[in-house]
Amino acid sequence: MAGRTQAEGEDGYFQVVRRGTRDEGRGTRDDKLTMKKFFSYKHNPWMGFALVGLVFLLFLFAEMWNGRFWLSDFEVYYKSAARILEGQNLYRIKADDFYLFKYSPVSAVFFIPFAILPFAVSKVVYWLFYSFIMLGCIYSAIQLVTPNGVGEKPAGVNSLALLTGLILMVHFLRELHLGQVNFILMFLYLLTCRCLVAGKPGSVGFLLSAGIFIKPFGLIFLPYLFYKRKWKELAFFLIYTAILTIVPLLFYRSVYLTANQYLAWFHELFVELGNKQEFSLPANQTIFSVVSRYAFLGGILKTPALFLGFQSLIIVILAILMIILINRGKAISNQERLEMFLLMGLIPLLAFSGENSFGLFLPAVVLILFYFRELSLQLKIVAIAGFLFLGGNINDLWGSEISSWIDRVSLISLGAMSLWFVMAKLRFQRLW
Question: pLDDT digit string (tens) for 164-182?
């Protein structure tokens, strides 16, 4: 009996050991399967973002290796932040030469955290920070466009992220090289859109106000909010604008000195606008310049008054078209998303900013890619042409001569108009 019990006990022990060995083996296989899924394009929806981010990181090392790690525009913001900390003047400093500060005193305050660090370190920190902002723009656009956001099928999300990165890579890398702020503005606009859809008027007001103090592009949203009767959002915008306006007073400790800084900023804005009214210049990528050049109106628009009238006519036509598109989408849930995308797309077409702000078409790219299969053949051709024209001017690929020709004929503007047209068609078809 004792022997049988011992044998039974031994059998039970060995069974547990064998079962444990099998479980450990299964655990090892499960671990391998988990790791495989983690690096899988079809299972991990973050792989697309990781690959785009890897390009940004590799470009950082390439810039350092080639001695091109300059971030010239960021240096302007950095110096201005250091100056406002000391209560110094921000504008028309001869030592700055070409790289003059042309933004609001409040924007200098925003960059104070970077000015605390040595400039060499701060450039790296800003590069990494800006890389995350750009990835955040892709993420936010996908969240707004797709029904389940990043919760969609991982392969679809990865494709959206990678294709968006590929189409707009020239804009991403140019922004990083210069140390610009346009994707910070886009991130604020996308957050504004999400808050508008979610019914958070306070957040909408704050985000728009903060963006306008960096660059006044966001003013384009105010007539839209007025037309949509978003009174709370407008009220919060005014409140936060008033609060942010007095922030520089904390550093200058004088109403007179603070007011002088704002007067100097307004002067810079008027000078900038005055310098950028030559519509015949190839570098002028605005819709006013493109239409006037392609319609051969140069011989007619000979005086500033005539060109101002022409600009006003274009703006009125665009405003009427926006109203039509808004009314067309009244029956669509969360219709503000497309309307905000359309307004973001108008910013680079209306503001003289060269190619720098055309990255604001990122939400349009994500939207059109997501609905690409549902487009007609004609719209697919228009969309593909828009993608190529918008992001295809790669100097290292085509060479300076062809790249300059692309600028002269304003292919980037034609591409932007093409994508804007596709978005408008989506609204007319009530797809979005």
Answer: 999 999 999 999 999 999 9
